[in-house]
Amino acid sequence: MKKAVSVIIPVYNVENYLTQCLDSVTLQTLNNIEILCIEDCSQDSSLAILQKYADRDQRIRVIKNIANVGLAASRNIGVQHAAGEYIYFLDSDDILNLDAMEVLYKLGIEENLDIIYFDTEEITELSGQISAYACVHQANVHGIYSGSEMFSLLMEQSDWDGCVWRQFYRRSLLLGKTPFREGQLHEDIAFAINIALKAQRVKYLDRPLHKYRRRNGSITARIAPANIVGLLYAYFDVLDIAIHNSSDTRLNGALKERLLQLCAYVRHMYRQCEDIDEIYKSDNPVIGHLLNLITKDLYQGMYPGKISRGKIAVIKKYRDIIIYGAGKAGIGLYEILMDLKIDILGFAVSSLENNEDNLKGKKVKLITEWQEYKGSALVIIAVKRKNLLFEELTALGYENVLNIFLGNYFQGL
Description:
Layout: E1 5-11, H1 18-26, E2 33-39, H2 46-56, E3 60-64, H3 71-81, E4 86-89, E5 95-96, H4 100-110, E6 115-126, E7 129-135, E8 144-145, H5 147-156, E9 167-170, H6 188-198, E10 202-214, H7 225-244, H8 249-270, H9 285-295, H10 309-315, E11 321-324, H11 328-339, E12 346-349, E13 358-359, E14 362-366, E15 378-381, H12 387-395, E16 400-403, E17 409-411
Parallel strand pairs: 1-2, 1-4, 2-3, 6-10, 11-12, 11-15, 12-14, 15-16
Antiparallel strand pairs: 4-9, 5-10, 6-7, 6-9, 8-10, 13-14, 16-17
């Protein structure tokens, strides 16, 4: 008998959550499903847990990757092996309501739907406690729409969510071209739009059928350079979709709004990522250029990559910090330090001409007026006279000097 639903579960290092996830799938009220677990070379006991479940439930197939390929590639492998009429992607640390597949499959068959969007609940682990709240669409989206109409409608009401675990797909929509961009995070951003634009009949079900687990060690819980790079590639992909749909005024407007949202996400992550300089080492130089364009007005043009992890470690050693320079670079540096929750004593300048005596609520004084701190404070150079100032400061007796542009660091003995 043909399988009703293929549940695709990429698995990597989730031994603490996998049992709960698999229980929620194997106990589904819809029995006619296949469960494709793509084991991505876990370094914990995830594979052993999968094998134990597969031994007692013939619906489970464990597909072992020969190398760690990541979430997107694992999902693509699952699609290649899927035989169900519909496909559902489940993260291996999340949980399904026990009637989820039955509710979605019956609705899909009865109303001949290509995609069903539905709600979820988020469970957050904090100090050993688990709290839950519903993540629901607020938009008025009753009835059946084309995927393009649904995407545009939800974007117009600021309610689009491209997460694949809130979507139930007819398998035929995913056949052909590789669905997910491999090797990048946030791979589902462009995927969800592309699939929606292929769908003729979609519907929103006002009901939570899934529990999304937010945990500290997950891909989406930490902000690393790879998160930002993934968003930048997603930006390119959505821009490409917009270019190819420029004749559809409503859809193009929704896509432009999605691009603005992605810019906002990048700017938010940019302010919290301590390793921005890693992005500029990308094999694709356009990535760094796009990042500069999106963030050019942040920090007065001082990108946080100027402050490497090593420099941040040095700065955090000091209780008293003085920024030498009250121009754009100095202000930008101050804003970066504030985001890192690093306070300063104030700003130092070589002349008070054209300078206020207060900047950002901090005192602005001549460098010679800060000399009571010359043995204890760290002076960070944030002007572009570079080595000349470094030599001047050490000559004045300042024992701890860091040049943010060159990386020079002098610490008195």
